[in-house]
Amino acid sequence: MRQDLLATRERLRDGATNATAEMDASIAIAQAPASRHVFMRTDVDAARAAASRSSPWMPLAGLAISVKDLFDVSGEVTAAGSAVLAHAPPAVADSPAVARLKSAGGVVLGRTHMTEFAFSGVGTNPHYGTPANPADPATPRIPGGSSSGAAVSVANGAAFIGLGSDTGGSIRVPAALCGIVGFKSTAQLVPREGALPLSSTLDTVCAMTRSVRDAILAHEILARRIVTRSHAPLSGYRLAVARTTMLDGLDATVAHAFDRAVATLRDAGAQVTDIELGEIRNLGAIQSTGGFTAAESYAWHRHLLEKHSAGYDPRVLARIVRGANMKAYEYIELIHARSGWIASIDKALRGFDAVLSPTIPMVAPPIAQVAPGAERDDEFFRVNTLLLRNTSVVNMLDGCAISIPCHVPPELPCGLMIWQSAMRDDTVLNIALRAESALASITEPT
């Protein structure tokens, strides 16, 4: 794996490399056979030109970033991984997220593949193909979704930042499966304009990176705020391990990696307490009528569906149309139920700085196991439900969370999720910095 952005920026400033050479390296990776289906499109000439004009003293120093096909980039079509929007008019302006990354010196290498309309944590796409997870060159495995190409572009070294979105886990799931860092900020901190919506209530604009310090930099640029740094050691933090639901049905690799990570943090001084957090069990009943994603996605898609429903991924279509059956009073009741549920979780977490959970309960299955096809639908939906189970709790909480790698090669990647309620972003990021350092001490599987 290439160095992270901050290390590469230091080499640029020291004269050990230059932005054009780094962009050429990114382009070579993006054009390699292993990157098939990672990018919807690239503009290598424009990327090289922008890199050549960059300054190493800018925050992103002319280095390559990738943009999920969900975001407006001036002059480009925002298709959201769909066939039905492939010939839509091009965007007339950059989305705020893209504009902020560009103004900080980031160079857009290309638009990345994604699950159609961001509606899945698996990462498959029947229209444009599915990028293979770079963690296992021998067996094509799912990258996770919906920010599939964004995750692979960072994991394989093509991009230093992968701009994406997270509605139920679409940043953290692929980050965990591909062995990189994914930070979901509190939703209100980054503008969502210029990003095609899935759920106006739950959508979050955020990014994937190769390190926690890069995640902090990306967040500061996207949110236009400075993260308050703390020098407190891990012993200064009180962490909870949520046992209800979050630890159910873990596969052997994830269970072992998570237990090892928690033990390592304890050994490093963290105060770790197991709690039940039984309130998580209530989420099923709260969302029994389909939840925000079904209702709000149907509201956006209903007119498009009148003419183009046959062009949708059937697996995506089935979940969108479920929203047509939600009644107004059920939607209002959902809003109130969520508010009460958030209050109960906040009360249960009082006194804790953050919660530790496995990001995902399983390592990446082979693409063939869940590839498009009606005969694999049951397995696809089973895997999708499992992948989003833990991460979606944080979206319903309106909280913030980061996934950091907790595997040790040759183990397949999995993630440690550190999370809390809204506006606790800085605490989560500071804990993640300490946790990342502690986990680096694990040099081989135990």
From TrEMBL:
<protein>
    <submittedName>
        <fullName>Amidase</fullName>
    </submittedName>
</protein>
<dbReference type="InterPro" id="IPR023631">
    <property type="entry name" value="Amidase_dom"/>
</dbReference>
<feature type="domain" description="Amidase">
    <location>
        <begin position="34"/>
        <end position="429"/>
    </location>
</feature>
<dbReference type="Pfam" id="PF01425">
    <property type="entry name" value="Amidase"/>
</dbReference>
<dbReference type="InterPro" id="IPR000120">
    <property type="entry name" value="Amidase"/>
</dbReference>
<dbReference type="InterPro" id="IPR020556">
    <property type="entry name" value="Amidase_CS"/>
</dbReference>
<dbReference type="InterPro" id="IPR036928">
    <property type="entry name" value="AS_sf"/>
</dbReference>
<dbReference type="GO" id="GO:0003824">
    <property type="term" value="F:catalytic activity"/>
</dbReference>
